[in-house]
Amino acid sequence: MKNPYILLLTAFAFLFTPVFSQEVIRLQSCSNEMISKQVDSLKNLYGNDGYVLLKEASISMESEFEMPVIIPLTQGSWYQFVFIGDYSSRLYEVRMYDWQERQVIYRQKRWGEIDGNVIVYSYVPQYSEFHMMKPVQVNKQKKKNLCGYVMLFKRTGADTGFVNPNSKNP
What is the CATH number of the domain that holds 126? Predict the structure, then answer.
């Protein structure tokens, strides 16, 4: 070793350099009276249509940041997904990905549309696997502490309306 001092200096630099890491985004609940009324209304609507509520969560969000929600889905079951964003936001989007990270759903709404802060979509998975739903909302006034709400419903009973194209029955 020609320069042991370089090695020693490098070792000290690593030892005394503070370690920086990314801040972890944790799921936190929130409360919004307007969203609560919409949630109750949608629970009644889908309950009367033969759906069962599987999961629901209020989530505190940050403007322009996706909030990943991982959900296990069963092949051939009919699901209804709901995302409700803060009413003061201007843009709402939901993307859903399957286990292979292929985008299977994309929905977008803007403030001012009828039910603009609510995104609803149906989905019948081809495989039993985990899926990731990523809601995001854009708000110019409030950057943090935006309230959002996600719900997952599953169709019950034999009459789901789903026809399996691979079925051999006439």
Answer: 2.60.120.380
pLDDT tens sequence across 78-124: 999 999 999 889 999 999 999 999 999 999 998 777 777 999 999 99
> What pLDDT is stored for residue 137 in this prediction?
94
Cα(58)–Cα(85) distance, rounded to whole angstroms?
Answer: 10
Higher-scoring residue by pLDDT: 103, 26? 103
Give the largest CA-CA distance in the chain. Answer: 83
The Cα–Cα gap between 80 and 33 comes to: 23
- Domain containing 40 equals 22-155
Residue 62 burial by Cβ neighbours in a 10 Å radius (0-12, 13-18, 19+): middle
Burial of 21 (0-12, 13-18, 19+ CB in 10 A): exposed
Distance between first and last Cα of the chain? 81
